[in-house]
Amino acid sequence: MASKHAIIAAIERKIAGTSLSTWRIGLTNDLLSQKTHFLEAEQRHVIYWSSWPAASLAEAQAVETHFIDKGVKASAYGRISALRPVYVYLF
After folding, report:
1. DSSP state of 17
2. How high is the pLDDT of residue 79?
3. I need a surface site. Which of 3, 6, 26, 78 has the fewest CB within 10 A?
């Protein structure tokens, strides 16, 4: 599991030099279901999909807020459980 600082650094490297508004960020407990939802139900291209396991729900939320505040689009998601592994995803 990665700290919020490690995830932020990884995302910064990935999106460097791009328009932040073209990216979407979100949280999930189930990466496969979330990615499949975007691919099949929403017809989104997920070719640039990346994900990181967060150390905690609070750290994942801090990462998400950091990038939303910078202009990355928020991705709607359902309830996230702090009792299960939490992932930050970006595409």
Report:
1. T
2. 86
3. 78
Q: Which of 5, 31, 46 is nearest to 88 (CA)?
A: 31
Q: What is the DSSP string of 39-75?
A: IIIS----TT-EEEEBS-HHHHHHHHHHHHHHTPEE-
Q: Is the full-model pTM beyond 0.85?
A: yes
What are the pLDDT digits (tens) for 38-87? 887 777 788 899 999 999 999 999 999 999 999 999 987 778 999 999 99
Q: What angle do CA 26, 50, 89 make, to 5 degrees?
A: 10
Q: What is the pLDDT of residue 37?
A: 82
**Between helices 4-15 and 57-70, what is the axis angle to 10°?**
30
State the DSSP code for 20: G
Q: Compute CA 66 distance to the chain's CA centroid, rounded to the nearest angstrom.
A: 11
- CA dist 54 and 60 (Å) reads 6
